[in-house]
């Protein structure tokens, strides 16, 4: 795009005579949206399996994994991590695939952070 001005400070092509695009400057900084990964309770998945999932896919210590598993068991749901969309989507897919292969109904999902 080329913007040309004459000596009077006017665009000689007229106000719409160029492919110029003038945009306002943003004052607020754009952060990339982040996504919460949620683990859901169910009545069938063994507690040890959930603890193993949290250690394996979310890098938690055994104590931390046990704690979060109990929170999900008691409250129904817990945030197990916050990631970029790509990473969150991958974690959900890994957990769902691992649970399915072991024939457990464990559910994991993602939610955009506000
Ligand atoms: N409620 C399950 C049980 O009593 C344990 C469990 C915990 C399942 C967390 C899923 O995300 C979950 N065996």
Written overview of the protein:
- By secondary structure, the protein is α+β, with helices and mostly antiparallel strands.
- The protein is built from three helices and three strands.
- The protein has helices at residues 47-58, 62-75, 85-101; strands spanning 35-40, 77-83, 107-112.
- The protein has a three-stranded antiparallel beta sheet.
- α1 packs across α2.
- It starts with 34 loop residues before the first strand and ends with a strand.
- L-tyrosinamide (TYC) is lined by residues 39-43, 45-47, 50, 69, 72-73, 106.
Question: Which helices and strands occur, and which strands form pairs?
Answer:
Blueprint: E1 35-40, H1 47-58, H2 62-75, E2 77-83, H3 85-101, E3 107-112
Antiparallel strand pairs: 1-2, 1-3
Helix pairs in contact: 1-2
The structure holds L-tyrosinamide.
L-tyrosinamide (TYC) is lined by residues 39-43, 45-47, 50, 69, 72-73, 106.
Query: In sequence order, what are the helices and strands, one letter per element?
Result: EHHEHE
What assembly state would you assign to the polypeptide chains in this entry? single chain
Low-confidence stretches: 1-17
How large, in whole angstroms, is the Cα Rg? 25 Å
Q: What amount of the residues lies in strands?
A: 15-25%
Spatial ordering of strands, largest sheet: 2-1-3
**What composes the largest sheet?**
3 strands, antiparallel
Ends apart, CA distance between termini: 37 Å
Give the number of helices: 3
Ligands in the model, by name, code or SMILES, are: L-tyrosinamide
Give the helix/strand class: alpha+beta
């Amino acid at each position: 795009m080329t913007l040309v001005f004459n000596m009077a400070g006017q665009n000689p092509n007229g106000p719409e005579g160029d492919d110029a695009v003038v945009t306002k400057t943003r004052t607020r900084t754009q952060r990339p949206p982040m996504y919460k990964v949620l683990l859901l309770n169910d009545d069938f998945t063994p507690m040890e399996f959930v603890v193993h999932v949290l250690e394996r896919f979310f890098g938690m210590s055994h104590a931390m994994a046990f704690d979060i598993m109990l929170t999900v068991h008691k409250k129904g749901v817990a945030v197990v991590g916050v990631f970029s969309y790509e990473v969150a989507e991958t974690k959900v897919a890994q957990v769902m695939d691992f649970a399915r292969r072991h024939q457990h109904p464990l559910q994991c999902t993602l939610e955009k952070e506000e």
